[in-house]
Amino acid sequence: MNKNSISASQLFFTILQTQIGIGILGLPYNLFKTAHTDGWISMLISGCIIQVITLFHWGLTHRLPGLTLYQMTSKLLGKWGGNFLNIGYVFYYIIVSSVITVLYVNVLKRWLYHLTPAYVLVFLLVVIALYFAKENVRNIGRFFTIVSVFLIILVLLISNAYKEADVRYLFPIGHSGIQNILLASKEGSISMLGFEAILILAPFVKAKSTMTLKMVMLSNCIVTVLYVYIIIACYLFFSPDEILIVPEPVLYILKATQNSVIERIDLVFITFWIISVITSLIMYVYISSVGMQEIFKKKTHRPFVPIVLIFVTGLSIYFSKTDNLVAALSQATNYLIYVFIFCIPICLLILSWIRKGTVKNEA
What we know:
Elements: H1 8-19, H2 23-35, H3 39-63, H4 69-111, H5 118-133, H6 137-147, H7 150-158, H8 178-191, H9 198-201, H10 209-237, H11 240-243, H12 249-256, H13 265-295, H14 305-319, H15 323-354
């Protein structure tokens, strides 16, 4: 296996680590605002939606084998159209990276470093991202595979919530109504972002096209189950009235949990949660720099990683100033997600079918 390739299992862990990140803390609260205690049903629906979108993304890589998203756009839209869309994708992923960094700063300042300037926290995260994002995809895949073991620790820590569970809080099931459950699934779908990395990573996977699809869909399943597990834990621990005043219920559960060995389980959880944040940021910075590599026709993405992180640092420091700016950035990003993750790849897939002479995958 050459240095620019990854195995199917490494793809699985890479997608998994990209998906699990910031959203894990506030997802139960965000779903509850619309679907109440039926939020776990919304999450299951979100998982199904993401699987369908994954099929469209995989279909695009299957129709245009050996090409990354940035190369597909040039093939389907021509040089100028492709570059225009690629620039849009680069800025989109820079904004997503900024959202991850801003929310990371927001959590750390509330729970740990109340007086630490935001730029210090941003700098620490950016330095780590710089170190890893400049590596080739094989090294990134290895790192993501190694740190995935920490997800088991996160699951075990959250299991404490089930010791004081009150099943009555979940009933009656479905009382919020089909409309609210479906509306909340939108929030759940956004929290599962990361699967779209297949559009960049597929050419590097040393496996059949169908195996690539299986690994991404398996990651989607694992993330869905994990999120449902966390959501139900929060809904069983807090009453419906309580959860409305705890925007990060996972941390509040752990803070309230008594343990004879570890005094502050919530701080232990944050330590391992930061690793998931780092992996998500690394992948999005890597994808952004690969886009710049394609736009400027260079042999490697490494020189563009610092450039991407300069933009991320500037945006993160600015938007982390107030909660209103954080909310505005998150809301704007949600709209961009529908365009760049849901709409454009599907349109490109349709275009690949319309255009004749498209190379077909032999895998």
